[in-house]
Write a structure and sequence with these properties.
disordered C terminus, alpha/beta
Length: about 270
Amino acid sequence: MTSAPIPVLSITDARERLTSLKAVLFDLDGVLTPTADVHMSAWARLFSPYLASRGIDEPYTDADYFAYIDGKPRYDGVRSFLASRSIMIPEGTPDDAPELETVCGLGNRKNSAFTESLESDGVAPYPGSLRFLDAITDEGLLVAVVSSSRNAEPVLRAAGIRDRFEVVVDGLVAAREGLAGKPSPATYAYGAELLGLSPQQCVVVEDAHSGVQAGRDGKFGLVLGVNRGAGTAELLESGADIVVDDLAELLPLTSSTSTPTPGEPA
């Protein structure tokens, strides 16, 4: 039996590496906010009836989300999942109506479901991620959001943290600048560039295989994985230096950082 991958860094080493760098580049969904759950639900609402309508017996599952969709730009996720079921449909264009059976039409149908859920239910940041964000900014590190989602701006506003980030590179920015989506490191490299830094001076924080691969292939100074369902071993195999279940596990960052209050995760 193959042994599980071993983290490159211990918690202590990861803290030291992190605080020696200049900036932290956060993925959004599943890292700062639990909107990955909303995305997962929206994808299921899209693909479960779609597969049934085509008479395909193999149902859509959460495992499909992590294998083919998680972390990728929306239309890439549609294309990747359809390929897993040997489904070929026209590409279409981004302004396709959600009712159209094209890659873009299906992607827009999923986005409609996501937007409805966000507007009706709202979203709040992960408490541990918010504490981690506070700690790294207290240490003087710069921060940015690098997300494949075209919904990053409304999600950040709904979570009440948009003003915490001067730099946001999302799916709309990537399309405007002609940047390849994750697992390409292009969007993360662009985020570092906007901060006036090199990739080697920045941390990438990711919960998706594609994002971890982007951090690894972009040779960022630290690739920090957050396991929200993708699997610790799998994220390590994709190139994470260390994987935590919650960013609060890295606190306190230094002896000068305040310690958690009783009852909060250390």
